[in-house]
Design goal:
This is DUF4190 domain-containing protein. Keywords: Membrane, Transmembrane, Transmembrane helix. This protein is mainly α. The chain has one domain. The longest helix has 31 residues. The chain is rod-shaped, with a radius of gyration of 24 Å.
């Protein structure tokens, strides 16, 4: 004798999102760029191992954080070059 099929379908279980991926994106938006990039790479590594979701969040955190790091590096280079050439002067 066969068992009757259930009259209901169980609800699908929501896939867990990697916490570090979320933190990476939020921190990149808050301009803590180097930390966001590091956490994004750690999140990608964890996502590969565990199969969690959040890969796009981790990549977004890496990209936004990377753009922020590049911005600050260029800004510092320009500021140092301007100071070295005498373009910035201070008077007391």
């Amino acid at each position: 004798m066969t068992e009757p099929t259930p009259a209901y379908t169980p609800a699908p279980v929501a896939q867990k999102t990697n916490v570090l991926a979320i933190v990476s994106l939020v921190i990149s938006i808050l301009s803590f760029n180097i930390i966001a990039v590091i956490l994004g790479f750690i999140a990608l590594s964890q996502i590969k191992k565990t199969g969690e979701s959040g890969r796009g969040l981790a990549i977004a955190g890496i990209i936004i954080g990377g753009i922020g790091v590049i911005f600050w590096v260029v800004f510092i280079i320009i500021a140092v070059a301007a100071a070295a050439t005498g373009a910035i002067t201070t008077t007391y």
